[in-house]
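User: Sequence in, structure out. Go.
Assistant: Echoing your sequence, followed by the structure tokens.
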Amino acid sequence: MPLLEALPPTLIVHRVQQRHELINRMLDNGYPLSEVARRGGLDRKTARRYRDTEFDVLIASARDRRNVPLDRYKPFLQAQFAPGTTSAKELYDQIRAQGFQGGYSTLSRYVLSLRKGKERKGKAVAAPAQNPSPRSITAWIMRPRGNLSASEAARLDEVRIAYPGITESCDLARAFTDLVRHRRGALLGQWIREAERSTIGPLRALGSFLRQDIDAVTAGLTLPYSSGVVEGHVCRVKSLKRSMYGRGSFALLRARILASP
């Protein structure tokens, strides 16, 4: 009995059969291996394996990968996942060291079910903490670390470890905030040089923008004087003018401006 007739008509058998026939038909018609892989949406190594391997070997290999038992590793995976080890690659390496012979896709599907708070058999497991919003992360970065609660500081450290770009942004943002709060304008040039070397595009753009008017920015970060009082009076006058528009004379507006604090 031919092998294909002896195999149950499962999806994996059908997929392997289709790929095997397509790849070998294109190769027989003179297509190069790279073009076969491109048209089939496959890696060249996969296309080469289908070319060089017998069909029954491909089927046996696919069924072995599919039927690898993961159940005996699930308690270990859940114990690692709960404290925060949620990387599928890291978990895969750990169970491979314990003897797991299955494929990465098997483990990644199970990790995805853990992230959704469900196990494949329907048994509920603890879902990981929800990712903080960009607004929360920004607030943690801009506040002094001493003003953060223990949980906020811990969540910020987790974000910094997971995303190196945020670590760089956090350090530069806090350094600039320190310049503003403590009037350390003399250190502005050093901050600009670090920002221009940053891998974060908006930070590089900010550093270049500040350099264009560095004297004025340095003065603003050094001297106790600013145009804040003038801008406050301008806003006050505009508010009074809008509230009286069409209902009073210029003399009344002048009197209100002079009388208001």
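User: And one key feature?
Assistant: The two ends are 100 Å apart (CA to CA).
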